[in-house]
Each structure stands twice: as structure tokens, then as C-alpha cells.
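Can you give me the bound-state structure? Components:
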Amino acid sequence: MAVGLTLIFGVMRVVNFAHGDMMVWGMYLAWLLATRAGVDPYVGFVACAGALFVVGLVIQRVLVDRIVAAPHEMQILLMLGVALVLENGALVAFGPDPQRVRSPLSAGTFWIGPIFVDVARLVTFALAMVLTLALYLFLTRTDLGRTMRAAADNAYGALVIGTDVRRVYAVAFGLGAACVGAAGALVSPILPFQPAGGLSLSVASFNIVIIGGMGSLPGAFLGGLLVSVAESMGAVFLSPSMKELVSFSLLIVILLLRPAGLFGRAAA
Amino acid sequence: MKWLVAAAVVVLLALPAVLNSYAVTVFIFIFFYAFLGQAWNIVGGYAGQLSAGHAAFVGIGAYASALLSVQAGLTPWIGMLVGGVLSAALGTVVGYLGFRFGLRGFYFVLLTVAFAEVCRIVALNTDAVGGALGYYITFTGNPRQFQFQDNRAYYYVALGLMLVATAVVAGIERRRFGAYLIAIREDESACEALGVDTFRYKMLAMVVSSFLTGVGGTFYAFYLFSLQPNAVFGIPLSVEIVIRPIVGGAGTVLGPILGSFILSPLAEAARVYFGQGGWSGVHLIAYGLLLIAVVLFLPQGAYPALRRLWIRTSA
Amino acid sequence: MTSADRLLEVSAISKRFGGVQAVRDLSFDMARGEVLGLIGPNGAGKTTVFHLLSGFLAPDGGSIHFEGRPIVGLKPHAICRLGLARTFQIVRPFPHLSVLENVRVGALARRPGMADARSRARAVIEQVGLGPKADHAAAGLTLAERKRLELARALATEPTLLLLDEVMAGLNPTEIEAIVSLVRSINRAGVSILLIEHNMRAVMTLSHRIAVLSFGEKLVEGEPSRVANHPRVIEAYLGEEYVHPSAG
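Here's the bound-state model for the whole set.
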């Protein structure tokens, strides 16, 4: 049943897509929030998303905005700095030990035919799908969503037609953070988590985004599925600790062959 | 300026006579990380190819010389060259893949991280090198095995390493190699149009950088005596390597040294005063904040800023 | 005329980008020491031709011979070392380096010794008139100065053939006059020049011959006066209704 778990992980890796050129983000933010969701995470995830949205907005306005035009190396380093602060802030605040969140649903299991299903994972998966769908609709159906996509495509053009590009960037970053917050909350009953896991999660999410295609939402979705399946198969055929090896190898291959990913736009 | 540097070197040589063992240890780490940072500086600072996976080279050099010493009795003084060569081999592979396929900026960073992580995972799962428990070297204190009874001997070795790396970087900066690397960092395509074989020079930088880093791995192994895959191949070590040149001044000769003199004491102070924060995470918060500050206010690092100040005040 | 006399022989090259045929079956030659002007409306494919000649793009078909040597497939730095240098339409100075350091990078192509390259760079900087600004950071130069810098850098590689891509774009008439005489003096010193330019007066005065491109194809090639009055050229630039039977 490892497949179910990694599948969920993958689906919720919705990335900071509107920022074609903002490529580093804080997935570990989820951890910070997930630990605090003393409420049942399946309800609390909304709050997590909200809180993270604000955090994202703040980070964007205060820090990221200043270096939007700076060379990529600087952006990477900035986000690395933010990552360090957040991850170790969590370490200081919550201690290094793994935590888990208990939800009334975590205990439930049942059988569908020959397949053993864990209720918690099912709910997480379902909610993740719903959120992804909602996000997709937002981007394609609402004005703000469309504006964001326009700005991502051509920031200068968007500026010319009067879009408040800065605001769009801020919202995009906030949304990305919100997604991550929700993701963290939804996964918290299933997986043990600890501050040190943050960086490997960031890397995992990059994995998925690169594979699926930077800047493409369906790509991120499919990338998530692909990586999850590959990792699970790796866990089954090789050994559980080697499954990360599979996704890294996949990453290397895709980086070399098609850095734009399966559905992405042309690489920066 | 040259007199200042010479004077500083003399001071550093004399220091162990007056310092206690704890202070000597702090300096050892300052020198060692400055060395690693200086090696990184060649490809990351001068050539502008940000590698966030240099820990891979440290790890390979460390494991190679450790294994050769323990299993084959090969003295680490030679083992370190072997480690360096092996690291350079990996560096060649990573460089080739990255540069031949035109990976720049963020993508190259990811590639280097991916390779370092692969090394880490492989080491974790290979029982022959100790697996998750790590590889241990028994302390014999025998100089021929690159081990010393006296902390001060390590001090001089680390200082020597730092000076050698610095000399290499200074030598590079003075020559066409350095001028080309700097130009590549500024604008690769323009370089190509001016007759610069950018692929060749980036590769060269990568090979030299990884070789030196691999040599550093030997020091790591025979100073700490235990190799844990998560520590020696992990991202935290890569961060330690990268942050010193960045803060001190990437692409300058003295940058990594300055950075190390700023960061190591800072880390040590954080560890001492806030050590209860479990693990050594607290100093990393300081690192993070410093990194943010540098990117926003001093993107070229501390050294260029200081030099500008110096010029302005002496003019 | 044998191959040896021809500095550059371009033979039926073409380049397609997705649905657009940027260059179509283009052929032309250059002799040593001449200035060939390459003109045509925007989008005619001129800069693409430069990319093809300098190795930044590979043609889909056809061949290019420089000094009798085939150069298709060579990387840009190799082509530069053979003696074919270029400038970019949108100038690309090394922003953090000084003017001198910028030009020195070019000089290092032929002179591996740093001191040697430095003195060559100084000489070129004087030649283009940037002497007083030698130690200024490239990022702080005016547009006209940056154009000179771009020119100086390429010149420092001691080329036999220099490709100049709209080196006068964005300059005022005085600056243009200055660049025109600079280019002329460079040519007189023995460097052949292939010039993309929109400024007609400059092209007419500088070029020994002119080739006109439209939609990737060569329309006309020949002496400036002949080309200027050629009906197809007028048609390409201004449209059909402007073609009158002319007196030239």
C-alpha cells in the first residue's frame, strides 16, 4: 500500500507555478504548520492553508519582491536562507523528534475486494484531488487566475496592459504557500514528520515539478503521479531505503534530456 | 595589501603557542572550511556555476582514503591524492553532464544536489562501507597514517591546506584561466563569440575544484575519525561549504577566508549559547538570516564591500 | 575566381524555426578586404544569417566556407579563432568588468599572456576612441560607448572578417558619423566587414557591395547605387505601389 501514500504526496505537490522564474519555495513551511494543527488535520488544513498564505505573502513582499530581477543565483541563495531559518526555527520551536498527528480517521481501514485501504490515506487523497481541481478551476475560470497565468507567461506584457504584476506575484506566492500548508496538514496523520525532513521534501517537490514540467499545473499533477509510482516500485523491487534513489535518478535523466519536463514551457 | 596578508600569515603561524586547545580547534575548523570554500570558489565563485552538492566530493575523498588506509594499509598522505582523483572523476561526470547538456543556474544546482544525494543514499545502503552506522577509523596517532596526537599538528595541516588552496585560486585569478572564468560568469554567449571554449574552461574549473575538495575529504576523515553518510554527503555540509565564499565574497581570493572567519565563530557562539535547541540547528538559523541579508544588501559578499570602504577611506 | 580568393563563400544555406523559414536557399560571397552591406526589412533573416555564420546556429542545409575551410558545425569559439568575429545586435558587455577587462577577454583569444593581451586591449581601446574610459565599469557606459566596446572586443580577437550587427542602431547622427569613420578605418587596416545596418546613408557610404534580403531570400546583390534603385528592393521596403520606372 505504499503506492497510496506516495500517490497522495505527489498530487499535493502543487508548486509556485505563476512564478516561472521563482523556482525555490518553502515546502517545509508545511511542517511548521502541520505540527501546530492540534485540530483534526482534515478540518484544520484550511486554517493551515490560510496561515501559510499570509506567511507566503509576507515573504514575497518583504524579500522576494526585491530580487525579482536579480540573477538566478541570488534568488536561489535567498530562498536557501529562508529555508534555513524556517527549518531550524522549527527545530528550535518543536524539537528534533518525529511527530505524528492523531486523527479519529487514522485508525480506520477496510477492504475493497483484494485491496487493503487505509481510510486516512483515502481521505487525504480525495481532499488533495479536490484541492487540485479547485486550483485548476481558479486558474482557468476566474479573472485573477487568468491574470496570474498571463503574468507568468509574459510579465512585461502583463505590465503593459495594466496588471498589477507585483500584486499578482504576491498572490501567487501566497497561494503556493497555502497549497503547501494544506498539503502538510493533510499528510500529517499519515506520515511522521520532523524539521529535518524539510529540505528533502523541497528536493522531492522539485523532483516532481521538474519531471512534470515547470510552470504547468497538469504537469505537476502528472509528475506527482509518475514519481510516486516510480518510487513505490523502487521500494518494492529494490529496497525501501533506495526508493529515493529512483526519483533522483529519474530527476537526473529528465534534467539531461528535457529540463522543461514533460509538459513544461521552455526552460529559463 | 600584500604586507597585510604576509603579516596575517605570520600571526596565524605563531598563534598555537598562545591558544588553548579549544581555540585551536575553532581555528582548525575555520581553516578547513575556508579550504573547502576556496575549492568551491573556483567553480562556484569564479565560473559562476553554483554547485550545491560539493559534499559529494568531500565524502568520496573521505571514504576513499579511509578505506584505503584501514583495508589496504595505504598511507593517507597518498590516499588523499587517490581520493582527490576519484572526486575529480565524479566532478568530471557531473560537469560533463551539466555543461554538455547546457544546464545552467537552477537546473545545474539541482543536478549537483541529485548526485550528492545519490552518493549519500548509496553509502547509506552499502554495508561494505559501514552503511547507516558509518565507517570508523581507530585512532593511532601515527603521523604516517595522517593522525596526530597533538591538536596543533592538525592546526598546521589545516592552515597549510587553506594556504595552498588560496595560492591556487590566486594563481588562477592572475592568469587567462581566471579571466575567462570570470567572463563566463558574466555572459557565456558573449564569451563564445570571443573565442572562449566555455565548455572546456568550465570543465577544468570543475575538475580542479572537485579534486581539491576530495583532498579535503581526507582531512575530514582523519580528524573526525567517523564517517556518517548523512553528515559527509549531506546537504548541511554542502551548505557549510557554499556559505563561506558567498558571505565572504564569491569570486575573490580572500572571500572564502573572510567568510570562514565570520561564520565559524558565529556558529560556535550560537552552539555554545543556544546549544539546548537540540542538535546544532541554531547556528543554521543565523546562517539563514545572514544569507538573506547578504543577498539583499551585499550581493557580492563582505570582502568587496570592505575593499570599497578601504579605498574610500584611504582616498 | 578560385576558392582561395574568396574570403567567405555561403552556399544555399537555409534555416527553419518551427513553421517559419527564416533563411531560404541563400548564397553569397565576399572577397578579401571588402565591406559587404546586408540590408532588408525587419524580419528578413539578417541576424539569423549572422548566427549561422558565427556558429551559434547550424543551417538546415547548405555550406559555408571561410578562407576555403568549411565551418558548418564548428562551435562559435572555434570559428572566432579562425578569424571570423561578430558583434551582437543587443550589446552584451560584461557588466561588472571594466572596459579594459572586457576588451582583454577578446585579446586573450590570440595572446594567451595576460600582459600581452592587456597591451593589445589598450591599443584597440584607443583605436575605437574609448581611451579615457578604459577603467570604467562597462555597466556605466552610454549606449554609444557600449557599441564601441562591443566593437572593440570583437576587434581585439584580431579577426579577418568582422560581422557587425546594427552597430549604429540607437545612435544620434553625430555618433553615427563617428562610427562610420571608425568602421572605415578598420576596413582600411585590412579587416573585411559584413555589415547589417538599417541606416541607409551609412550603408551606402561604407559598402563596396550590398546584398538585400527579404523573407530569408536574397533579392539583389551588387553595387550600392544599382541596388538602391532596384525595383524589387523598393518593393520589399515600401510595397508595390512605390515601384516607379526610375532614372538610374
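A couple of observations. The beta strands of chain C are 6-17, 20-31, 35-39, 61-66, 69-70, 84-86, 161-165, 192-196, 209-214, 217-222. Chain C is about 35% helix and 25% strand.
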